[in-house]
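Q: Could you predict the 3D structure of Hydrolase?
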Amino acid sequence: MRVASAVTAGLGLAGLLVSGATASAAPPGAAKEPRAPLAWGPCPADQKELAEAGAQCAKVTVPLDHADPGGRTIKIAISRVKAKSPGERRGILLSNPGGPGGTGLAHTLALRPALRDVADRYDLIGFDPRFLGESTPIGCGPAPRPAPPARTTTPRKDFEASVRAARDTARRCQEQGDNAELLPHASTRNVARDMDAIRAALGERELSYYGVSYGADLGAVYTQLFPRRADRIVLDSSTDPAATQYELFQRSGRPAEEALRGRVRADVLALLTRAERHPLTVKGQRLDAPLLRMIFKQLVQHEENDPRLASVVSDLKKAAAGKEFEPGPALSGLLDLLSSPDLANSMVGGALFMCGDGGWPAGGWPKDPETYWRNMQRSRATQPVFGPYVNGMIAPCAFWKPEPREPGTRIHNDVPVLLLQARHDNNVPYEGALALHHALTGSRLLTADIRAHGVYGRGNDGLTPVPCADDAVNTYLRDGTLPGTDVTCAKPESGR
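A: Sure. Here are the predicted structure tokens for Hydrolase:
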């Protein structure tokens, strides 16, 4: 189980804030109790871990537009693994793995090793957010097969290719089927409302929740819209609630740049300098500089000194030298990811919410492509590796036509919340967590003295765990006890 969404988060889309600085409109009231019981049955065949755990799945009917409860409806797919200790049952625990664009039908179940005995006290509820996975999915039609990068290129040519691709994605999403009706309702506020509808459909007065990265931002929005329905809420690796999505994307460059140190940094810079003129070729697949930056962002995201980074750099140096070679498992896996339909689906799913959340232009993304180019070029002085990526990778939102139906959510409440953050988060600056901590006046902040993205349950992924953080989360979910003050967990001993 990767605590942060390995696909979308790894490509720099995680932690993009959904809430702007404008005051939020009054939300619709809490979801009403359902008129009929849910029809539980087997989970989708491709969700083997759910079947092995004895989970059942169902669909919750929710309004497309929560302000129009009598209008068109959509279906939200949920899974449930019942509590094993009925006498000690606390309630329901939902989760979100990040993205935006990450599906989560099996995510809460995947938390079970980290939860240990706490898992037995909750019905573990997974769900796919609206328009993703099994929840009335939105498709954007097949993308045209991209031409392979030319043997020679320039940064400007690469940028112009990204602009064409973003414009085409926006066009395909808006023209496909009845997407024109659906897209305006792809927002984090509506996902939070869907969560409350799940709570009501399960007959619960409150829900508990764990969210990481974008999932943490989603949890903060839930506390704002439904403070009386929030039970025990854990938000891991969050962002600044007053920043636009584009600003957050830009801010992710500095921590990623700082994570890339030593000899490997010099090698990465040399590879990028070469690829900006002559893309590398590995097993017939041509890798230009934007793709390399995407790969390197994945490799610095979750763990300090990720051993895969050295392996990938070594392979890419062979490619730069024109050698024939068999790439190692790390590079092979990343190449498979780049050509996977799962990646394309996740990128489109991320765009739905990045573009649909409050603020205009959509999510704070500039409309003029030249703004990205100028920011990209300026960033090279201080962030030569990741600056061009986080400033210049133009999102489809620049060409998005459906205007968000609501403003962003202004976060400010006193709901008791446990916040987790790495002091040296490789994806979002630590200052963002401090800003959210200030906005959530009832929260406690647990700081892990590590360089990583995602603090809870890291041992499940073979990453160095933070026992202090795991214990604090489990104590809170088990007993309802928040730390008396903010806490700093010392850097744990490394080891896998």
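Q: Anything worth pointing out?
A: Confidence is low (pLDDT under 50) at residues 1-27.
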